[in-house]
Amino acid sequence: MSRALVTGGSGAIGGAIARALAAAGHHVYVHAHGRIERAQEVAAEIIAQGGAAEAVQFDLTDAQATQAALAAILDAGAVQILVNNAGIHDDAPMPGMRHEQWARVIDVSLNGFFNVTQPLLLPMIRTRWGRVINISSVAGVMGNRGQANYAAAKAGLHGAARSLALEVASRGITVNTVAPGIIASPATAELFPKEALERMVPVKRAGTPEEVADLVGFLASERAGYITGQLININGGMA
Fold this sequence. Notes:
The chain is of the alpha/beta class and 239 residues long. It is built from nine helices and seven strands.
């Protein structure tokens, strides 16, 4: 049984990814920082369905705390599937954006990627098999008003993933990035009423967390071994 870690597993997309990986037979670590109760609920749902999961809590912007948490996980063996899903928004037009808003969003999405991924690579390399999948956003592809910080963080992931893919390709490890567009959730229902979706999205609806999870599940599978270094959009034709 491969072991998988999903950061930001307490959210809608992260929870759906955790459930999909568990359904494929992997032992899933569902990560959260502030919403550990939700991560525990996701893990409990997986166990109730006959899967294997546990919730883990750490602040991925704290390199030392992350290293300690990952060391405890690695005691049981390598993590061969890593889904870097954690990210935050703190929106403002750039002329009015505070330095803290810029730094915090970059810290979670980009520095968090490094803090989690780097310690897991050598154990993964030793197994000669692995999957690193980063969750980006259509904002990182197209840009978006009020999200220069978020778009910069996600676009940074694209370059990091492409470079890492080249470094580990010969070791049986693939590295890919998935960039969702508007995905259904209580928050997006408020931000994007039906008329806005029909105007912005060619397929005229929001995507579902499960559709993103299905794509991630495929990239995490044996069948996707020849796909690496790619940025894959799942956005209903927006970009």
